[in-house]
């Protein structure tokens, strides 16, 4: 198996007492980074344009000055008095704090960048347009099953700054988004995984080039002894990998171009078979690609083949990712609400032969015409949310489209269109924030509407 790369990770010297930080956005990661900055002797203030009750309580508990929805002048005064600005991942690129910090010459660093400087153990990092959470979770489980204490953190939920302070861990596996990587200056994971690239979050980055550049920062500061795990089936990722300063390990579904691949019904690495495909709980093409990426990364970080195999065979798919909701009358109903961009929706549809697709929501500045690439598999489309007209346009002349004004109506229309053998698939290709607070809430509403419809029959 590939040689494990686990050199010691150096922890940056604590901040000088008296330095001042301004944390922008006091959600989970903002609260965590504020807490750790305080421990390191910094004075911390926070701003939040719409703080939750939890954020207000956290500010009080930490003794932070929390300024709610500051005016431009008030924000400028806070920035010029700071030695460091720390934006949370959800802060939009249009927020004036970024321009104010540039004008004042105040450095801007994200929680992930700071956490990597504070880490007392090596980091494995995972990015990509789709599949990050699944692969991050799998790697952590593979390492744990191999006897290597590890945890999944970062964009997956647990703030990275909390995880890296845990002295009981040997490896921290971090899911990192393009927002977080955009502010990475010295972030250096010993194993860096880039799963795939499709246009996403262009409302934040502005254009595809900026989005790609942010993703590529995952391995920008690696060295020759580190490992970059690269998707051989993705030409953009492969092109960017040519600039990586680390050792390249490839994965992909085409055996002739990838070190970790599928052949003769088995997932295989360069040194032999890993696990039989038939033993996996799900084996759609993107499931296999995720499993290969996780295997390559985990083995590079110290996992054993036995641990990889055990984790793969025991792994249960995460919620709202092609989750089977119901099976009735020969029709299967799937919740894939986590598919918040067209690339993810296309991948989901591609796993089935005949689909009634429920798609739409709030577009993130993306080209929804990509959905038409799988029109030959789509019996009908139920368009929902703000992007319903764009979804309808993507399938015009290819598949019949109905527009729904609510999720129960969408489910009813889907049931009317579906025939035995079909899949009804909620795979929106858009964000959820027009009708819902999160993709999870959207998926739960879909499942509730499906169960209500079937129970009423």
Write the layout of secondary structure elements.
Blueprint: E1 20-24, H1 28-39, E2 43-48, H2 53-62, E3 65-68, H3 72-80, E4 84-87, H4 96-104, H5 111-118, E5 123-127, H6 132-145, E6 150-154, H7 160-163, E7 171-175, H8 178-182, E8 191-194, H9 202-205, H10 208-216, E9 227-231, H11 235-241, E10 247-251, E11 261-263, E12 266-269, E13 272-276, H12 285-300, H13 305-314, E14 323-328, E15 331-335, H14 342-349, E16 355-360, E17 378-384, H15 388-394, E18 401-403, H16 407-417, E19 423-426, H17 439-456
Parallel strand pairs: 1-2, 1-4, 2-3, 5-7, 5-8, 6-7, 8-9, 9-10, 15-19, 16-17, 16-19, 17-18
Antiparallel strand pairs: 11-12, 12-13, 14-15
Find the CATH superfamily of the largest domain.
Mur-like, catalytic domain
Strand content: 15-25%
| Separation, N- and C-terminal Cα atoms | 55 Å
CATH topology of the largest domain: UDP-N-acetylmuramoyl-L-alanine:D-glutamate ligase
Describe the structure.
The structure is a single chain. With 457 residues, this protein is α/β, with parallel strands linked by helices. The protein folds into 3 domains: 20-108, NAD(P)-binding Rossmann-like Domain (Rossmann fold), CATH 3.40.50; 112-314, 3-Layer(aba) Sandwich (UDP-N-acetylmuramoyl-L-alanine:D-glutamate ligase), CATH 3.40.1190; 323-456, Mur ligase, C-terminal domain (Protein-Tyrosine Phosphatase, Chain A), CATH 3.90.190. The chain has 17 helices and 19 strands. The chain has helices at residues 28-39, 53-62, 72-80, 96-104, 111-118, 132-145, 160-163, 178-182, 202-205, 208-216, 235-241, 285-300, 305-314, 342-349, 388-394, 407-417, 439-456, and strands at 20-24, 43-48, 65-68, 84-87, 123-127, 150-154, 171-175, 191-194, 227-231, 247-251, 261-263, 266-269, 272-276, 323-328, 331-335, 355-360, 378-384, 401-403, 423-426. The strands form 4 sheets. Strands 6-7-5-8-9-10 form a 6-stranded parallel sheet, with helices on both faces. The longest helix is centred in the C-terminal third of the chain and has 18 residues, at 439-456.
């Amino acid at each position: 198996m590939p040689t494990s790369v686990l050199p010691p990770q150096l922890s940056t010297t604590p901040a000088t007492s008296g330095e001042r930080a301004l944390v922008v956005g006091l959600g989970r990661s903002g609260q965590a980074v504020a807490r750790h900055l305080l421990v390191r002797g910094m004075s911390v203030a926070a701003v939040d344009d719409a703080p939750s009750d939890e954020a207000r309580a956290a500010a009080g508990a930490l003794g932070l000055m929390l300024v709610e929805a500051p005016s431009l002048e008030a924000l400028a005064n806070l920035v010029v008095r700071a030695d460091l600005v720390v934006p949370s991942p959800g802060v939009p690129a249009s927020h004036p704090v970024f321009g104010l910090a540039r004008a004042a010459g105040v450095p801007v660093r994200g929680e992930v960048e700071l956490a990597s400087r504070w880490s007392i153990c090596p980091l494995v990092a995972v990015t990509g347009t789709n599949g990050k959470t699944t692969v991050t979770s799998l790697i952590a489980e593979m390492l744990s099953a191999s006897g290597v204490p590890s945890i999944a953190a970062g964009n997956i939920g647990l703030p990275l700054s909390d995880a890296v302070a845990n002295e009981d861990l040997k490896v921290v596996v971090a899911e990192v988004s393009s927002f977080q990587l955009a502010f990475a200056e010295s972030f250096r994971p010993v194993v860096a995984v880039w799963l795939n690239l499709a246009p996403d979050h262009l409302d934040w980055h502005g254009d595809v080039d900026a989005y790609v550049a942010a993703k590529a920062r995952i391995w920008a500061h690696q060295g020759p002894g580190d490992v970059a795990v690269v998707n051989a089936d993705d030409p953009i990722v492969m092109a960017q990998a040519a600039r990586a300063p680390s050792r390249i390990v490839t994965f992909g579904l085409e055996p002739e171009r990838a070190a970790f691949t599928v052949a003769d019904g088995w997932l295989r690495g360069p040194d032999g078979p890993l696990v039989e495909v038939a033993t996996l709980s799900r084996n759609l093409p993107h499931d296999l690609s995720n499993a290969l990426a996780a295997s390559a990364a985990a083995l590079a970080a110290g996992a054993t083949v036995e641990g990889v195999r055990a984790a793969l065979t025991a792994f249960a798919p995460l919620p709202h990712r092609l989750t089977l909701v119901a099976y009735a009358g020969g029709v299967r109903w799937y919740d894939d609400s986590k598919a918040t961009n067209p690339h993810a929706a296309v991948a989901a549809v591609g796993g089935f032969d005949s689909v009634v697709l429920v798609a739409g929501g709030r577009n993130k500045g993306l080209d929804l015409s990509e959905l038409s690439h799988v029109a030959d598999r789509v019996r009908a489309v139920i368009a929902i949310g703000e992007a319903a007209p764009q979804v309808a346009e993507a399938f015009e002349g290819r598949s019949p489209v109905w527009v729904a004004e609510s999720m129960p109506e969408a489910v009813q229309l889907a049931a009317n269109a579906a025939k035995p053998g079909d899949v009804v698939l909620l795979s929106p290709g858009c964000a959820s924030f027009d009708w819902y607070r999160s993709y999870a809430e959207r998926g739960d509403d879909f499942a509730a509407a499906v169960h209500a419809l079937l129970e009423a029959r």
